[in-house]
């Protein structure tokens, strides 16, 4: 034998997989069955391991939110079946002192007939423009500009109150309640009373989005025009309470979210509805907003928010058990959303699983199944041998 041959044979002694001679191998039918079963099992497990490897996982991470000067976008879609749109005002207030009264931008009020069908879409407060148009039509032909009286209310910059709406605004600015439109010329001319009568049985859908400061605040949907009086936020409740039709703040929240929509984020108020049969009722939702970022594998990042909510409601008429109304407790009827910003930020990062991990899994499956099958096979072989021996004795 050459020197090379002896080196090779020395190397061979490292073989951990020493083979038995083929002549000593016995092939059995159960061995074959075990082999097939193992093969099928391996295929199944490999498939599940592969699909697990292909699906990215989302890893959440909790950090302190260090962003500054951000705005918060509130998306809302809520229906009031028993409050007509002209009575409803949407206001936002925050602890930074910013108020947005009777929001007109990007919030749409849709009139609903008593059966809940849409009447027509109008941008909040757009009806003032409509009225201006009507008025311009009626004043056509008159050369000198018309200047209506404000009936003692706080006149707008132009000094004139040409529409019923402007008179009502002037009244409200002055802190007066606008409760007798019949005595006001502009309102009679516009058929205000008839309009109100037609609309008073209607409902209202409020939908759209508001951008607010990212500090704790409150937005509410309450009856009557709102205004600031001595730095206090006041609503003119008179039209709501004195109406011959009973209004109430039964509502259904179709959607309430903060920031862009992301699949998998559940908004706990979506589809929530509350029913009440009397007007003097206050619904409050205390919302905790948690900033959430999503970093996806395709390099897109979405900044949004999740929230949790607690619900509270209060009967504002102090009714005793006999049903008599005692007195009006403090508080405004309506639906209030008090939001608060959490200092924590959740970062959800989408990640692909590591390939080496997948490889390890594959080896574990193949090796494991073969080993277990081998043990089983040996067990059956030995059992059969003892059984046969016993039979012969
Ligand atoms: C508000 O929700 C209702 C009911 O789900 C839906 O029909 C309507 O289109 C929504 N409005 C907006 C502006 O998304």
Automatic annotation (TrEMBL):
* Keyword flag ATP-binding: no
Question: What range does the record give for the signal peptide?
Answer: none
Out of the domains of life, which is the source? Eukaryota
Q: Which UniProt keywords apply?
A: Membrane, Transmembrane, Transmembrane helix
Q: Which Pfam families match?
A: COPIIcoated_ERV, ERGIC_N
| Membrane topology reported for the UniProt record | Multi-pass membrane protein
Q: Which residues cross the membrane?
A: 29-47, 358-381
Enumerate the spans annotated as Endoplasmic reticulum vesicle transporter C-terminal domain: 150-377
Primary subcellular site in the record, as a coarse category: membrane
Q: Report the locations given in the UniProt record.
A: Membrane
Single GO cellular component term:
Golgi membrane
InterPro entries, per database record: Erv (IPR045888), Erv_C (IPR012936), Erv_N (IPR039542)
Q: Which residues form the Endoplasmic reticulum vesicle transporter N-terminal domain?
A: 11-100
Is Chloroplast found in the keyword set? no
Which biological process terms from the Gene Ontology are attached to this UniProt entry? endoplasmic reticulum to Golgi vesicle-mediated transport; retrograde vesicle-mediated transport, Golgi to endoplasmic reticulum
Q: Which family does it belong to?
A: Belongs to the ERGIC family.
According to UniProt, the name of this protein is 10829_t:CDS:1
| Organism this protein belongs to | Funneliformis geosporum
State the organism's lineage: Eukaryota, Fungi, Fungi incertae sedis, Mucoromycota, Glomeromycotina
């Amino acid at each position: 034998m050459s020197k090379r041959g002896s080196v090779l044979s020395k190397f061979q002694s490292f073989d951990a997989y020493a083979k038995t001679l083929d002549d000593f191998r016995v092939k059995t039918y159960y061995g074959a069955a075990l082999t097939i079963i193992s093969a099928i099992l391996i295929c199944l497990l490999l498939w599940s391991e592969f699909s697990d490897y292909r699906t990215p996982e989302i890893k959440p991470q909790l950090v302190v939110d260090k962003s500054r000067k951000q705005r918060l976008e509130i998306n809302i879609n809520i229906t009031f079946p028993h409050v007509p749109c002209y009575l409803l005002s949407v206001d936002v207030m925050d602890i930074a002192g910013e108020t947005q009264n009777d929001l007109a931008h990007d919030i749409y009020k849709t009139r609903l007939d008593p059966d809940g069908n849409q009447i027509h879409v109008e941008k909040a407060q757009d009806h003032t423009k409509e009225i201006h148009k009507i008025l311009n039509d009626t004043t056509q032909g008159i050369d000198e500009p018309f200047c209506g009286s404000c009936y003692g209310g706080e006149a707008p910059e132009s000094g004139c109150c040409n529409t019923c709406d402007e008179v009502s605004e002037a009244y409200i600015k002055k802190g007066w309640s606008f409760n007798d439109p019949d005595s006001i010329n502009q309102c009679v001319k516009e058929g205000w009373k008839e309009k109100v009568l037609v609309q008073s049985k209607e409902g209202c859908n409020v939908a759209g989005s508001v951008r607010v400061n990212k500090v704790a605040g409150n937005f509410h949907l309450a009856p009557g025009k709102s205004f600031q009086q001595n730095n206090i936020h006041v609503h003119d409740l008179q039209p709501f309470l004195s109406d011959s039709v009973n209004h109430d703040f039964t509502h259904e929240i179709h959607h309430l979210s903060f920031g862009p929509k992301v699949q998998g984020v559940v908004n706990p108020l979506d589809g929530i509805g509350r029913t009440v049969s009397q007007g003097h009722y206050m619904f409050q939702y205390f919302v905790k907003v948690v900033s959430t970022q999503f970093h996806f594998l395709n390099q897109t990042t979405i900044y949004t928010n999740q929230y949790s909510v607690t619900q509270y409601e209060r009967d504002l008429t102090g009714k005793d058990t006999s049903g008599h109304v005692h007195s009006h407790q403090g508080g405004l009827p309506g639906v209030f959303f008090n939001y608060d910003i959490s200092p924590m930020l959740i970062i959800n990062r989408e990640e692909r699983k590591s390939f080496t991990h997948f490889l390890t899994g594959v080896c574990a499956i193949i090796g494991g199944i073969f080993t277990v099958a081998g043990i089983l096979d040996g067990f059956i072989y030995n059992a059969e041998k003892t059984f046969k021996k016993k039979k012969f004795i």
